[in-house]
Every structure is written in C-alpha cells, then in structure tokens.
Amino acid sequence: MPFEFEKQNIQEVILVKPKVFGDNRGFFIESYKKSEFVKNGIVDDFVQDNHSKSSAKVLRGLHFQKHPYEQAKLVRCTKGRIYDIAVDIRPESKTYKQYVKAELSEENKQMLYIPKGFAHGFVVLSEEAELLYKASSEYNPNADAGIIWNDESLHIDWGIDFEPILSEKDQNLPTLKEVLK
Fold first, then answer.
1. Domain, as residue range, for 119
2. 51 in a domain, yes or no?
3. How many domains does one find in the chain?
4. Which of 9, 38, 44, 166 could form a disulfide with 136 if both were Cys (CB 3.0 to 4.6 A apart)?
5. pLDDT score for 1
C-alpha cells in the first residue's frame, strides 16, 4: 500500500503517510490516490488545489468556510516545516473545541486530512514554508470565516516561543463564541 492512514485523537482527522521511494537520485511518492483514500474513509471529491508560501513565524488561520460551502482539506508541506492545526467547530460533536496538531514538513512528507466542520490554521517553523492542499469545494468569498488563533476557549498549544506574524485579517478574527452568535 502506498500510504499509511493514522486516525488522530479526533478520529475524523487523519494523518496520511505516503510511502517514499528514494535513492541517490531523489524520491518519488504518490501524494493522492482516490481508491486508497476511499478505502481508508476519506471519501471527499477534491475539486480545488491551493498553493501557499509563507515566511518564518507566519501564522495563518484559523480559517473555514460557512455552510453550505464547508471544505474538507488535504494539507501537505512541500518546503520547510509547519505545525498544522485542525479545530473541531461542530457544536453537536463530542470533540467540539478539541484540536489536532501535526508537524508537516518537506522531510516527513506527511499530509493531514481535515474534514468539513473544522477550522484550519498553521504556523511556520522554518525560514519559509510552502503548502499544497486540496479542498472538497471551491472557495466562496461570501462564506469565508475564521476564528482568532489565540481564542482562550480553545486552549491551543501552538508549540511556539515567538510572537507570530499575522495578516490584518487574521489579527481581527472573532472568537468562536462570537462566530456562533
């Protein structure tokens, strides 16, 4: 099998470890194979690919799309190193307000599957980082939403000892309580 699928402390969030075929020339991996993903519970039809580049200490998030435009994501760091965060924002869920943190890097080549109903964010731990990620629905600017990264009700341990660099938009995001009003 070209992948290992590891359910995280929130069972719907899955760490995907591709098999790496490498030698002195470089490496090859399959980064996505629908049949393998479906067999392992990831049934989303991915319809949009995104690529982002961020500098050291940049924190992006926590972002999500409002109903009915929610997005499942498959996130991969192709350059550098990040902590990737997925927060369950489904009020009816038994894991509501809990989160998963995974280190994704160009070295480990792992991916994080984040289902619909989760807010997503990441912080750059290297000089720069590039992410490629698939989304299960197209971005809709009218459904764009977010939660402030340091919302005290979420108790997220970002694992950083520096003040992150945020966009103006991310600096002014509401708390989860304000989003749910």
1. 47-179
2. yes
3. 1
4. 44
5. 65
Which entry of 83, 99, 113, 133 is annotated as an active-site residue?
133
- Residue 46: partners with Cβ closer than 8 Å, 6 or more residues away: 32, 72, 74, 134, 135, 136
pLDDT tens per residue across span 70-89: 999 999 999 999 999 999 99
In this structure, is residue 11 part of a structural domain?
no
133 in active site? yes
Which of 32, 6, 164, 8 shows the shortest CA–CA distance to 100? 8
Kindly state the percentage of the chain with pLDDT values over 90: 97
Catalytic residue among 63, 83, 99, 113: 63
CA distance linking residue 181 with residue 176, whole number of Å: 9
For residue 99, the SS3 value is: strand
**CATH for 60:** 2.60.120.10
What phi and psi, each to the nearest 5 degrees, are found at residue 170?
A: -70, -30
Q: Give the pLDDT score at 181.
A: 73
Q: Is residue 64 part of a domain?
A: yes
In a domain, residue 32? The reply is no
Q: Tell me the pLDDT tens digit for each residue of 6-17.
A: 999 999 999 999
Report pLDDT digits (tens) over 16-53.
999 999 999 999 999 999 999 999 999 999 999 999 99
- Please check whether residue 18 is in contact with residue 31, taking contact to mean a CB–CB distance below 8 angstroms: yes
